Amino acid sequence: MSSSSVVIIGTGLAGLTTANELVNKYNIPVTILDKASSIGGNSIKASSGINGTSTETQRHFHIEDSPCLFEDDTVKSAKGKGVQELMGKLANDSPLAIDWLKTEFDLKLDLLAQLGGHSVARTHRSSGKLPPGFEIVSALSNNLKKLAETKPELVKIHLDSKVVNIHENNGSVSAVEYEDKDGEKHTINASDVVFCSGGFSFSKEMLKEYAPELVNLPTTNGQQTTGDGQRLLQKLGADLIDMDQVQVHPTGFIDPNDRKSSWKFLAAESLRGLGGILLNPATGRRFVNELTTRDVVTEAIQKHCPQDENTSLLVMSEKMYKDLKNNLDFYMFKKLVQKLPLSQVVSEYKLPIDATQLCQELQAYSTFTTKADPLGRTVILNEFGTDITPETNVFIGEVTPVVHFTMGGARINVKAQVIGKSNEPLLKGLYAAGEVSGGVHGSNRLGGSSLLECVVFGRTAAGSIAEDRK
């Protein structure tokens, strides 16, 4: 087996997964590069959880699920775009991904939520104080940082290191060139490179090229999310697919102290999955099934809610606070969510209905636990009750659609190899995992599948490299 280091570009969950699997399972050394000055990418911000089917946690809650059902939900959400073979792999490998995180990194992943577009509750998170993305990224990065100190021959981590070129020789990857924070260039010889560099949602230039209608929307992405990986892979001849499929998440919090900011803090989909509802501030009424797919909820907000800011109101019950106390405490600390009596909600948000009518709206929603919701929502959790008054407290925040995730990228196959326009692997030793790749989600990603994609295809890339080095 070759002992040369695998170069991994990016320190989000895809890169951390690939590195941990290569080092821990196969004893293959890794060199990790990231242009950012800290580890985690956008993965560290993920706040709803990670999908998995047929898991121990689902069995504990007596939830019947299967990879087939998950694949069906994914294909339906993809709306004819993407690569179904990759969607099948995502679903089939999901129980292995959850088990890997639990057994290798001692993560609980003992709670579930049903997010939009899912047939059952399959989005896992841990009981405890840490949000899922932060918890998972921390566990994987801590392991690598420890190894970088104790076994530097096995793990090297270079931050503030921007990859600027990939060299090839006779149809194989041969080296990676990167620039440090002082502008000095370095070259690492490498027979295997895994791109885990993320999407391009922060890049106005790339949005203008692929989805110009979204250029003026705010984003939830960090400033490192500029599509460098897609550009480098395109230069090598990768087949970029679905690049115009950019997901707008329906709920980014509006900061009342900086309403016009082009960056928004994500209002996690679990807030709706576990009971939050959306009200149109122009009517004070619900207007959409909050748990349909993200694109449909976004379209409804843009169609029905005030056009100047496309603002809707995310309203949650006191009962829900017990389920998501840590999240809501954090949002309140950030002043993105308030706890208010319904009478004050009416005055503060200038609703065109009185407090009694607002009570009736929330009471009507609460009855859908026993009868059908005319808007089609079937998961009614942590409802408001049928005996509320204008003095009943709720948790409320203003939300607006935000550019969130790019489904398109470099096409890969089920071995995580980057594919060229001839539908064959582009270069020997060239892999991709996570948001830099395309084909896994089609035109709309399901909540909870971004972290899953990183784990499934990061582990796959590691396995493919190990197999090739035998």
UniProtKB/TrEMBL annotation:
Residues 6-451 form the FAD-dependent oxidoreductase 2 FAD-binding domain. Its cofactor is FAD. InterPro entries: FAD-dep_OxRdtase_2_FAD-bd, FAD-oxidoreductase_2, FAD/NAD-bd_sf, Flavocytochrome_c, Succ_DH/fumarate_Rdtase_cat_sf. Keywords: FAD, Flavoprotein, Oxidoreductase. Its EC number is 1.3.1.6. One of its GO terms (molecular function) is fumarate reductase (NADH) activity. The keyword Membrane does not apply. It holds the Pfam family FAD_binding_2. It catalyses: succinate + NAD(+) = fumarate + NADH + H(+). Transmembrane segments: none annotated. Binds 1 FAD per monomer. Gene3D superfamilies: FAD/NAD(P)-binding domain (3.50.50.60), Succinate dehydrogenase/fumarate reductase flavoprotein, catalytic domain (3.90.700.10). PANTHER family: FAD-DEPENDENT OXIDOREDUCTASE 2 FAD BINDING DOMAIN-CONTAINING PROTEIN, FUMARATE REDUCTASE. Belongs to the FAD-dependent oxidoreductase 2 family. FRD/SDH subfamily. NCBIfam families: flavo_cyto_c (TIGR01813). Irreversibly catalyzes the reduction of fumarate to succinate. This is Fumarate reductase. It comes from Saccharomyces arboricola (strain H-6 / AS 2.3317 / CBS 10644). The lineage of its organism: Eukaryota, Fungi, Dikarya, Ascomycota, Saccharomycotina.
